[in-house]
Amino acid sequence: MPELPEVETIARTLRPELVGRKILSADLRWPRTLAAPSPQKFKEQVRGLRITGVSRRAKYLIIELENPKTRQACNLIIHLRMSGDLIVRGGKINPEKHDRLILSLDGNPSPGRRGEAQSLVFNDARKFGRAWFTNRPQEVLGKLGPEPFSDGFTPQWLYENLHARHRRLKPLLLDQSFLAGLGNIYTDESLHIAKLHPLALSDSVKPRQAAALRDAIRSVLEEGIRRNGASIDWVYRGGGYQNYFRVYDREGRSCVVCGTAIEKLVVGQRGTHICPKCQKLR
User: Fold this and answer.
1) What is the reported pLDDT for 112?
2) What is the pTM of this model?
3) Most-buried pick from 5, 134, 140, 234 (CB within 10 A)?
4) CATH class of the structural domain 155-274
């Protein structure tokens, strides 16, 4: 599943391609892709809207829309889940097998330029991805925890909120209502840098460890974004962060810090990679 760096990369890639374009029509090829509203209402209401922005919240992509006549704003919010992808295709397209939603767009929006019409395609082989068309985004995003790059995500906030719970570290960090955007890869990498075991209890973390964990989370996410995310399977393409993993997917290989063989555990039904020497469970 794409995590924060992969979703941020997709948003940055799509932004110059989409902003300023008008949606001409919508072809919903798998109705259950749309969580809300009804397919008929969506097709009617999205037609003629102009794309004003592309952003991200946690692992959600947000296509910001506006009615050119009324200036009323709304959003198309998309969660890619396990296998979803958003692609801009040029010209008249023949839908592919796993295309679930196709938005036909007008030509190039750049001043003084005219280009061929294009389409924004949501392709999703496993059909787990979902989209919401709404003018009340908080109904979809309201239960998410803070963003790791927000001003409020301080060492003190992390320490206090870790101690407000009595949970294993990794499942808690994966909980999107606690902290938004982390997934399996970047949680393993962060815990290794902070020298914390994924099974350690959250309320056992000391202030200096909370500070180290907060800095590690930001560091791995920043590096992930800088390298356009990680490409580890057939779904997400184009990233290079997988070449710099410290522990994730490196079972049996040497720890980059101490040389000890990386081990793989199962934590909360998730494959988890650690260095048993750097991340001792006390």
Assistant:
1) 46
2) 0.92
3) 5
4) mainly alpha
- What is the mean predicted confidence (pLDDT) over 94-105? 94
Rounded distance between C-alpha atoms, residue 56 and residue 78, angstroms: 10
Task: Give the list of residues 6+ apart from residue 127 with CB closer than 8 angstroms, or none.
Answer: 30, 32, 33, 100
CATH of domain 4-141: 3.20.190.10
Domain boundaries of the chain, sorted by first residue? 4-141, 155-274
By annotation, the residues acting in catalysis are 2-3, 59, 270
CA 214 to chain centre: 19
Structure tokens at 81: 């889940």
Band (pLDDT 50/70/90 cuts) for residue 30 is very high
Whether pLDDT at 109 is above 60: no
Which two structure tokens, joined as six digits, stand for 72? 């009323």
Using an 8 Å Cβ cutoff, are 61 and 12 in contact? Answer: no
Quote the CA–CA distance of 56 and 224 in Å, as a whole number.
15
Phi, psi of 178 (to 5 degrees): -90, -50
| pLDDT tens readout for residues 156-204 | 999 999 999 999 999 999 999 999 999 999 999 999 999 999 999 999 9
Q: What pLDDT does residue 22 have?
A: 97
